[in-house]
Please model this.
Amino acid sequence: MPLTPQERNTIVKYRLKRSEETWKEAKFLFENNMLAASVNRIYYSMFYAVNALAIENGFQTGKHTRLIGWFNKKHKELTF
Model:
């Protein structure tokens, strides 16, 4: 069932908030020379942000590979 505009907006805001929080974690880890953990947090920060973008543009998935494929296919025509 498609999301209502209000549901979509709520989810997008949540995903962007998670992206920002995860980015802060990555920065902290990097500054403390915990590089492997920092890379993991950077990946997830990007994942949450792209997930928000996908939801805003009508695409939903919980699978990383499907989200990456969607982004690679659609990135030139996306609304930012």
